[in-house]
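Researcher: Let's try something more involved. This one mixes different molecule types, so please make sure each is placed in the same coordinate frame as the others.
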Amino acid sequence: MQENAVVECVPNFSEGRRLEVVEAVVNSIKSTAGVKVLDYSSDKDHNRSVVTFIGNPGAVKKAVLAMVEKAKELIDMEKHQGQHPRIGAVDVIPFIPLKDIGMKECVELAREAGREIAKAHDIPVYFYEEAALKPQHKNLADIRKGNYEGLKAEISKPDRHPDSGPSKMHPTFGAVVIGARKPLIAFNVNLATDKLEIARAVARKLREKDGGLACVKAMGVMLKEKNLAQVSMNLVDYEKSSIYAAYELVRIEAARYGVDIAGSELIGLTPLASVVDVARYYLKMEKLSKDQVLEYHLI
Amino acid sequence: MQENAVVECVPNFSEGRRLEVVEAVVNSIKSTAGVKVLDYSSDKDHNRSVVTFIGNPGAVKKAVLAMVEKAKELIDMEKHQGQHPRIGAVDVIPFIPLKDIGMKECVELAREAGREIAKAHDIPVYFYEEAALKPQHKNLADIRKGNYEGLKAEISKPDRHPDSGPSKMHPTFGAVVIGARKPLIAFNVNLATDKLEIARAVARKLREKDGGLACVKAMGVMLKEKNLAQVSMNLVDYEKSSIYAAYELVRIEAARYGVDIAGSELIGLTPLASVVDVARYYLKMEKLSKDQVLEYHLI
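Model: All components are placed in one shared frame. Result:
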């Protein structure tokens, strides 16, 4: 691990309504030396917040520990309600290699952080994605099956035991999922229709699970304010799937229904290579590399 | 001027054949503390080389002075031949604001460097583009009119006097043009034809001078190896002109002749905003900012 290594961390925690609690949890990260909070946002319906921050591996781990301590103090899962799947006060903590650090080292960092949390707070910890120790823990959705309430009832069964810490929910915090993954691209395409079933049908054609593009997860959702149906996607491996390919495939599938694309959006952050890739495709460039982007040399 | 200010400098010098001379001149830059050479390339037909380097303003100025000294030692303009317009051993030195520095400060830096060169080496110095002191010196082409040989004969005339230094060519170095400008995008579009006249006709429709896109310079050239005609462009203000607009305008003008685009290329470096702009257009994004590019936060 090099001195200049930078890790991204995108923890999700189970509070999106009491803004003073959100601020206190975010501040526990901000006040850790050596990290920089790039973004955070809360959703009232989901009663959940997401923070994006970066820093050197040691500082990021410290910030995660501080955050867990603060969330444990202020969030009680017995009282938590919200639409989004969740099992704990801090629900999921992915570590993402950004610079001068590999996935292997991020996996180690995630497991170290997880074991320290389990030990210090008596919290059950699951390792997911690249940090998974069991195949059934690779997917977040499998770990969160039944939510806080369901896991509480089943955690004592061997096939739902955590990877670290007690096989018993923490009475207020619940449990936490920690892991390592590549940067994820959240890409949404709006269709020029108010018919949700069209977005759902297009999403089925897009997602890997149903024979679509590898490394793409997709669902159809309704945008109430705009009255448009949206294909909401996660591109989970930016080195394999391309934004332009997802866009063009949505276009040709929607055309089946005589529906055009109304627009698209990237939520949060995306790797430089993914943007360069889009330009390279539409401008018919044999080669265009991120080395050709001026700012890349200022890193 | 802030502590973290970064300036880009892209000097062109009049040697592209004797590679030991090219290396020596480039090394004079490389060996200056605080600068980083990103790229350099030489052209034998032009007998000319281009270096791209970055650093803090003070270090970049030092590197420029070291480079002029080395070029003065090794290059004799009385013996120089080459197709490209030129008036001096180091021919043109643009300073480009990259980070935490404005154009005004780059203009000051250019003029300071120019005056030091004039004084230390008795070399005539012209200030161009944003650093120009006279309107007739704004355009590089106007200063270089007649090339080394022509300027040598006319430099004593008042309307061709330099902005600093003697009104007499240095006997071996010639003269130098120094200035400040925005980053320039060198964008070439290859047409699926071997007819140079089509590329020339398309270039005329593209360039500002003839009623095309503002801040675009364009010419038609022949790519001998590929046997394709090319529209070769400079986008001189990336905040005003867009790569996608130039590309699409080339496409519709070439279509007039039944000719398609075969491909395109960006030469050298381009600002992040210009690549983001391409993605935003083709993906119909209302908003996409360079803040959404992960690596931007590592700067």
